[in-house]
Design brief:
The chain is an alpha+beta fold. It is built from 13 helices and ten strands. The longest helix is centred in the middle third of the chain and has 15 residues.
């Protein structure tokens, strides 16, 4: 295994408060305050700790959760894996990668899609719509741009579905098959849609008006059926376990999925999101901290489920939370408070 890319230089920035707080202590503190939620951590040495207050039908199994927009982290890394092929780069354009791209979108680059600066609209419809790839492409490519490509940061779910379409068309595989067979570390819990899903292990929603006042599993509540449509594919709704995501992130950091060059590129602060502290990397947020260090993160939620991850450059610790409603966000806030962040 390669040494983590962030290495000793970032470790030297560690503050005693963060470095001296064992991950399991932070998780135990959170579990006493938030239930039901799944909280997990991986320390700088690679040890994983998981605490869960979530009940599932298969009680002796690891819980499958909805990653929400954390799917963008996965899609970005999959895109970087794809473009390590000869002849591709983050500056490759839609015109070179997709058929029948109109003039106003022809020169949009993968870099712009990855950093939410493409000008592509935020969404082309409801997550639960059973939209095919062909219909999605026809719709998104015909929709006027919101901004001039490269001009400004504007979060776009549709932009990340375009990345998923590029992966499919370029590889000749489905987006999910490409993830599981080429990107997810061998032996790790899969990250995907149908191939990664098991209803007996999936968390269920609360009874809310959003779910017709019934408890619903992830597929029904988030996808609207047994498989998601293309308003969701690539930008949201991927499922895995807490352990599965932490394993994936650790493999990425260790340059086991893409080269060190692309690890660094993904974690670079490419575009200011508006306040000089938050920047768009590739599929993640780069947050500059007051102590001079950096935190990387992404979250996701659809008012039914929530999930969030944070990686602290100082200590090499990665935290992951998932649950119903806003539970993941509340739990992550508590974790960061418990680590004296």
């Amino acid at each position: 295994m390669k040494a983590p890319l962030l290495g000793a230089a970032l470790a030297a920035l560690a503050t005693p408060a963060l470095a001296d707080t064992p991950a399991h202590e932070a998780l135990e503190t959170v579990m006493r305050a938030h239930h039901p939620v799944i909280v997990a951590a991986q320390d700088g040495a690679g040890a994983v700790t998981v605490e869960s207050g979530v009940d599932i039908k298969a009680h002796d199994a690891d819980e499958i959760v909805d990653l929400g927009s954390i799917a963008k982290t996965v899609t970005a890394i999959a895109t970087l894996h794809l473009i390590e092929e000869p002849g591709l780069s983050v500056q490759s354009t839609l015109a070179a990668l997709l058929p029948d791209v109109p003039d106003d979108k022809a020169n949009i680059t993968l870099h712009q899609l990855l950093t939410h600066t493409s000008g592509i609209v935020e969404s082309t419809g409801d997550d639960n719509e059973p939209l095919t790839r062909a219909a999605f492409l026809e719709r998104v490519l015909a929709t006027p741009l919101d901004n001039t490509p490269g001009a400004t940061y504007a979060y776009s779910n549709a932009g990340y579905s375009l990345l998923a379409a590029v992966i499919e068309i370029r590889s000749g595989m489905t987006y999910e098959d490409y993830l599981i067979e080429n990107v997810i570390p061998e032996g790790s819990t899969p990250i995907g849609y149908g191939r990664a899903y098991d209803e007996d292990r999936a968390i269920t929603s609360h009874r809310t008006w959003l779910t017709g006042f019934k408890r619903r599993h992830v597929a029904e509540a988030s996808w609207g059926g047994p498989a998601p449509g293309w308003n969701l594919i690539g930008n949201g709704g991927l499922v895995t376990t807490a352990e599965g995501f932490l394993s994936f992130w650790a493999a990425f950091l260790n340059a086991d999925i893409v080269s060190e060059h692309y690890v660094a590129a993904a974690m670079a602060p490419h575009v200011d999101e508006g306040d000089g502290m938050l920047f768009s990397g590739y599929g993640l947020v780069v947050e500059k901290l007051e102590n001079g260090s950096v935190m990387f993160w992404h979250d996701g939620g659809n008012d039914i489920f929530s999930a969030e991850w944070r990686h602290l450059a100082d200590t090499g610790q990665t935290y992951f939370t998932a649950g119903t409603g806003s539970a993941a966000f509340d739990a992550m806030e508590s974790i960061l408070a418990a680590t004296s962040f």
